[in-house]
Write a structure and sequence with these properties.
CATH class: Alpha Beta
Number of helices: 6
Largest sheet: 10 strands, antiparallel
Number of strands: 10
Shape: globular
Helix content: 10-25%
Strand order of the largest sheet: 1-3-4-5-2-7-10-9-8-6
Order of helices and strands: HEHHEEEEEHHHEEEE
CATH topology: Thiol Ester Dehydrase, Chain A
Structural class: alpha+beta
Strand content: 25-35%
CATH architecture: Roll
Length: 287
């Protein structure tokens, strides 16, 4: 049962514990879909920002500034997303849903102790020509009526039919300078799970990834985005206030990752084994 912290606020945001993850992994597609899916909405309350947890996140992902990193907000947002998608009104299974795009914007500094309300809307988009079904998600975090951050995401819920045509060649490595690089150790997925709460088996070990149909474990996409954000912060000496990403290829554990400048001054490309795995844009806050 959802717990209320007082009569004027939304239910407390559920934690991503083992029971919650099990519910996510065990949800199945509804047998019959009758027409378009109505938008899903939810409101949850994060009672207060856990500054000790923020510090652990900063240390784990390489942030050095004594502030809330932009990508930290994805952690409560993901909990709001999953809690909303667990609704019986969402007709698709959650195991295998693919995060394809994300964007985060910080509007003002986070309050130290005030409750933060997360308001989420999820729209199931019409099927594409191939039959693929995507979901558009937006979560706004606010405190005292003031918007703190906005997170938008896009997920692939149903894969479309293959065209039979060979895939085009992936673009070559960007000509921009190297911003940072890192190598993912075999425990990287578990390390990120400890700080994020996301214990999806595909990120943990080879055997658990194989149970979910993957040949090898892959790092969480938002781990890569957080490492990117930390590197951009460090290079500029100030915080990124807006960051977008489009995921194009998985990054297996044990691989080396190279972050490079993109074609535009405010863009980046993340490479793994010479292949673009993610790309996007960024902007810094004032000051």
């Amino acid at each position: 049962m959802l717990r209320l912290i007082d009569a004027g606020l939304a239910p407390v945001l559920p934690r991503m514990g083992p029971g919650f993850i099990l519910r996510v992994l065990s949800k199945r597609t509804r047998a019959v879909l009758a027409g378009p899916v109505a938008p899903l909405t939810s409101r949850f309350t994060l009672p207060r920002l856990d500054l000790a947890h923020v510090a652990r996140y900063r240390a784990a992902l390489g942030f050095t500034a004594d502030a809330v990193p932009l990508t930290y907000w994805y952690l409560p947002v993901q909990r709001a997303h999953m809690a909303t998608l667990l609704s019986s009104a969402f007709p698709y299974r959650l195991a295998g849903i693919v995060h394809v795009e994300n964007a985060l914007i910080a509007h003002v500094s986070a309050p130290a102790a005030a409750p933060i309300v997360l308001a989420t809307r999820i729209d199931v988009l019409p099927p594409s020509a191939s039959g693929a079904v995507y979901c558009a998600l937006e979560t706004v975090g606010s405190a005292g009526g003031e918007r703190i951050f906005t997170c938008t995401s896009k997920y692939l819920a149903v894969r479309g039919a293959r065209s039979g045509q060979p895939k085009g060649q992936r673009p070559a490595a960007a000509a921009g300078a190297v911003i940072d690089s890192w190598t993912l150790g075999p425990s990287s997925g578990r390390d990120y799970a400890r700080v994020s709460g996301d214990w999806n088996p595909i990120h943990l070990t080879r055997w658990s990834a194989r149970l979910m149909g993957l040949p090898a474990p892959i790092i969480h996409g938002m781990h890569s985005v957080a490492r990117t954000c930390a590197a951009l912060d460090a290079r500029a000496g100030r915080q990124v206030a807006a960051l977008s990403v489009r995921f194009t290829a998985p990054v297996p554990l044990g691989e080396a990752v190279v972050l490079k400048e993109g074609d535009a001054a405010d863009s980046y490309v993340l490479f793994c084994a010479g292949v673009p795995a993610a790309s996007g844009t960024f902007a810094f806050g004032a000051g």
